[in-house]
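Running this now, will post back.
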Amino acid sequence: MIQAVFFDIGGTLHTVTSDEQVRARFIKELRKRLEKQDIRIPVDDDVFSSLLHQNAERYKHHVEQTLWEWPADRIWDEFYLADFDVGRDKLAPISEELSFLYNDMRVVNTARPHVKEVMDALKKRNLRLGIISNTISTTFSPYFLRECGIYDAMEMIILSSEVGFRKPSHEIFRLAIDKLEIEKDAFCYVGDTLSRDVLGCKNAGIGLSIQIDNPAIYHRDEGFLCSGLEPDYKITDLLEIIPIIDKII
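Update: finished.
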């Protein structure tokens, strides 16, 4: 019997889009925040944007190998702004602010339809709800949940930026299960990727995995498409979770 349903955030509770205008606004705002800390970036916005993207991809590749999230000041110093020799001492006071900005303004985050409706329905079924998310920011996820009106529905929010472990490591799922004091068979997780979410569920041996369709990440899952790795259920709308849960509880 399922007792808890936990969710990924990016790609699952919200979708992500971007374009040149969005990225240009972000780079200007990022530069402004850095300059307040007396950090000057000696290249134009286009070059800055390109370098930041390349370095972010480099960091993503690194942590996908190690499954360990770095502190924000190290991420910005050794990866995102590695070309500019800024130093952790200068970045430490604003590193979380930069990470929030990176998650919030670099893209357009749009809540999936029916987010609050689904959380309300699950709570009415006395299910325990929570979040497990890979993220460089400690503050963006709570902010997004509050914006959607579902923060108070969450019993637990586990972020890689706070605990270190990253999906698909089984450790980040075990943290949730151990804190809930339930059996892993009683745990359900909803995410959008094979490579992090479904694989993480398999690694942790949890009871039920649900994958919501997200075309934006197909390229990141290419290596898993012929691997035989599959979720227990595939959905295209969060509302589809309710009848799945009703069949099991």
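Residues 187 and 244 are 13 Å apart (CA to CA). More later if anyone needs it.
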